[in-house]
Specification:
The chain is α+β, with helices and mostly antiparallel strands. 17% of the residues lie in helices and 34% in strands. It has five helices and 18 strands.
């Protein structure tokens, strides 16, 4: 691994360490997919899927992670679990124009860098290199799933928490054959979008239910983005969260007195106009829905610009 790559992947892993401690969300996005994922809010509402979905199993252990080399096109539910703490956040991407793993990792690392000046060009390079199709933030004993529409082609599955390892965990997935059209039916949709006069915001549609699927849609132009859920201390308000985020420096460190009382669960990054149906083990309580992604125009964390909200899970 060369020095340039080591420096960039270390930046990603620093963010991941804080997230595992329940303080920070992932700093990563999954590679991009020219193939159509669950496309936009209008498209995905037309999908009335059954629970008997076409599934692919992803398993992470101390020895690595296993994933199939092939699957069929259409709506595909990826079921993921991990038995090793600090590993198993599997992302999905489709590289463009023959881009390889190193091309993807280099662009991803700069797009999600904790150095704000690296982010704008990194975001442009990432958009040219891959389409991010989500993935899962999970932990041992807390599995999850996400659903994507796969067109025929070649995709990349990778472990975000292992990108800085001497032997990064990634697998190529070839999609071919007859299409399927089944997937998980969500009870709610959360959309990240730009609101005129306000800036980036989350919009919640429907009702979040414990243990049930939800749909995440990224509508922010030119911006990869994730959706994370973190339990908050009793009595925490959105004003408290704003004050905490305002106190954050831009170098990836976090102030003391965190309002968060759990590790994060949720969806890894999506490219603009993409969506994913995600099922993670949320409980019936209050969470902060947030992102640790940086603004592709200036490298500032989007939570500092208002991209967070408090949600009640029933």
């Amino acid at each position: 691994m060369n020095h340039k790559r080591t420096k960039r992947t270390t930046t990603l892993l620093c963010g991941a360490t804080l997230l595992l401690a329940g303080v920070q969300g992932p700093a990563l996005a999954a590679p991009s997919l020219p193939a159509q994922g669950l496309r936009t809010a209008q498209d995905v509402h037309a999908v009335q899927a059954s629970e008997a979905s076409h599934t692919v199993d992803l398993v992470s252990t101390a020895d690595g992670f296993t994933a199939p080399a092939t699957t069929r096109p259409g709506l595909t539910t990826f079921r993921a679990s991990t038995t090793q703490a600090g590993k198993g956040w599997i992302g999905l991407a489709r590289p463009k124009d023959g881009a390889g793993w190193d091309d993807f990792l280099d662009a991803l690392s700069r797009a999600l860098s904790n150095t704000p000046s690296d982010v704008p060009q990194g975001a442009k390079d990432l958009d040219a290199t891959a389409t991010l199709l989500g993935g899962l933030v999970i932990h041992p004993g807390r599995p999850g799933s996400f659903t994507q529409h796969l067109d025929p082609g070649r995709y990349l599955l990778f472990d975000y928490l292992a990108v800085g390892d001497a032997e990064p965990r990634y697998r190529w997935l070839t999609v071919s054959g007859d299409a399927v059209a089944q997937g998980l039916a969500p009870t709610a949709t959360i959309v990240s979008k730009n609101v005129p006069g306000a800036g980036p915001r989350f919009e919640v549609r429907g009702t979040l239910r414990a243990g049930r699927p939800l749909r995440y849609v990224n509508e922010i132009p030119g911006q990869v983005n994730e959706l994370l859920f973190v339990k908050i201390a009793e009595g925490t308000t959105e004003a408290d969260l704003k004050a905490y985020f305002d106190a954050m420096p831009d170098d990836g460190t976090f102030p003391p007195n965190s309002p968060f009382v759990s590790a994060s669960l949720g969806s890894l990054h999506l490219s603009t106009g993409r969506s994913s149906v995600v099922q993670v083990p949320l409980e019936s309580t209050r969470y902060a829905a947030l992102t640790w992604s940086k603004d592709a125009t200036d490298g500032i964390r989007l939570v500092k610009k208002g991209l967070f909200t408090i949600v009640d899970v029933g």
